[in-house]
Amino acid sequence: MIRAPKFTAIIEREGDGYVALCPELDIASQGDSIEDARNNLIEALELFFEEADPSEVQNRLRSEVFVTQLEVAND
């Protein structure tokens, strides 16, 4: 069995819906709910891999993405 690669999904509320971003490939999608946004991002990624030339995938792919929280003084 071939193991599917895992990607990061950052999902945030925007207006009345949600936006989902995959930072490794800079691909985004949206939906009316978190689950819709997540599923639409998966579909967008699948379509990208079906249609993109391997060199485009390689050029866009970021191998290291770190998500963390920061404390920033806002005096």
Relevant terms:
single chain; 75 residues; alpha+beta; three-stranded antiparallel beta sheet; 2 helices; 3 strands
What's the arrangement of secondary structure elements?
Blueprint: E1 10-14, E2 17-22, E3 27-31, H1 34-51, H2 54-60
Antiparallel strand pairs: 1-2, 2-3
Description:
The protein has a three-stranded antiparallel sheet with strand order 1-2-3, with helices on one face. The protein has helices at residues 34-51, 54-60; strands at residues 10-14, 17-22, 27-31. The chain contains two helices and three strands, in the order E-E-E-H-H. The protein is globular. With 75 residues, it is an alpha+beta fold. The termini are far apart. A hairpin with a 4-residue loop joins strand 2 and strand 3 (27-31).
End-to-end Cα distance, whole Å, is 54 Å
For the biggest sheet, the summary is:
3 strands, antiparallel
- Strand order of the biggest β-sheet: 1-2-3
Q: How large is the radius of gyration?
A: 15 Å
**What helical percentage do the residues reach?**
25-40%
Strand coverage percent: 15-25%
The outline comes out as globular
The average pLDDT value, as a whole number, equals 92
Order of helices and strands: EEEHH
Which structural class do you get from the secondary structure elements?
alpha+beta
Instruction: Report the strand count.
Output: 3
Q: Specify the number of helices.
A: 2
Low-confidence stretches: none
